[in-house]
Amino acid sequence: MRVLVLGGDGYLGWPTALHLSDRGHETAIVDNFTRRDYDKELGVQSLVPIEDLDMRIAAWQEVSGQRIGSYVGDLLDADFVYETLRKFRPDAVVHYAEQRAAPYSMIDRAHAVYTQHNNVIGNLNLLYAIAEIDPEIHLVKLGTMGEYGTPNIDIEEGWLEIEHKGRTDRVLYPKRPGSFYHLSKVHDSHNIEFACRIWGLRATDLNQGVVYGQQTPQTAQDDRLATRLDYDGVFGTVLNRFIIQAVLGQPLTIYGTGGQTRGMIDIRDTVECIRLAVESPAEAGEFRVFNQMTESMSVRDIADTVAKQYPGSVRIEHLENPRVEAPEHYYNVVHTGLERLGLKPHLLSDTLIESMFDIVEANKHRVDVDKLHPGVRWTRTSNA
Ligand code: NAD
Ligand code: USQ
Hints:
By secondary structure, the protein is of the alpha/beta class. It has 12 helices and 14 strands. The chain has a single domain, classed as 3-Layer(aba) Sandwich (Rossmann fold), CATH 3.40.50.720. The model has no long low-confidence stretch (mean pLDDT 97).
């Protein structure tokens, strides 16, 4: 199949493009490198050095004999989006190209507006381009488990059967997200469902949990194929941060009690989920939702898992939570859709995160320890 990976220069987009190319799909990448600009803005860098996109693509061709195409541009530029779809003529578009850090979206008004504008309008441009150029294109869109928040009932896969005053209906699962970033994904989901219902588009919305890991079988073949690894208090995600903190001899920073529970997924499963979704497209008019996570863990349990696996001593520190989120709550997620398509999950209990310890050890000199601190608070203070 011909697959266009939007956001293909990012943490997940790059290994996904390699995985799809390795499985024989004609693959091309779209990116505007804005993620590399956030690094400059925040004064940080990926813990693992990464090559620029041209070098990555050349290295992959050398290693695999496969050529990945590239289109450099911004999804906010509708002409660019239309032109790219016309040129590449994809069967499927995998859409990763959004601002993805909750803390970044909560820095201030400007960052909240930027995040929602970039994500919602970019996605809307894409929906229009698909509808007007080729409505057969299957959109595989990355959403997030955080769209649902932490409701006191089971989390279904996108849809909920309800009974109200003796009548029944199937409705989009109610959303109660925890940041302006997570909210942008809710807005996207609604826009995509609308486009499927009104224009007959076919889409798969993947509500993905927190990803961990840095290597896939393809990226491990050559240092030049490495994907990024974020450690800072804005873009670093919880399990990756705890592994890095353990190796640096820094305390693992649990926010609050650590009772908050999240869906987790190994990066190797992320790329496989995308392949499975691409190879089994949604029906025309179908808004298909999968919960792309393989296990739930509390932040406390994540810290304990890292502490147990790390060969050295590990300190755990409870910081005052800079976010506003439920400290202890019910969390039970249905996530059978992708397994039905064939996913064989890597679970943390049987995955050795030792290889991650080695990767961090080799690159720890690149870390600016001051940037580990979570600087962004969810609360606002009056400046009247
Ligand atoms: P990332 O920031 O590393 O990658 C996103 C890429 O999209 C970057 O290369 C960036 O330059 C590009 N991009 C952003 N806006 C763009 C625009 N307007 N035009 C063109 N390119 C643009 O993020 P990631 O961690 O790889 O996440 C990818 C997707 O998966 C995101 O949509 C994110 O919300 C979702 N997701 C990530 C995680 C996780 O733990 N990393 C978990 C669940 C969902
Ligand atoms: N947390 C800590 N200590 C830390 C970092 C985080 O206790 O040092 C806690 C947070 O308070 C939160 C949980 O760990 O309760 C997860 O935080 P995170 O930063 O790992 O993840 P999150 O902000 O939710 O965002 C990440 C990705 C985002 C994706 C989301 C999936 O950045 O793109 O959408 O995970 S999910 O969480 O399922 O919504």
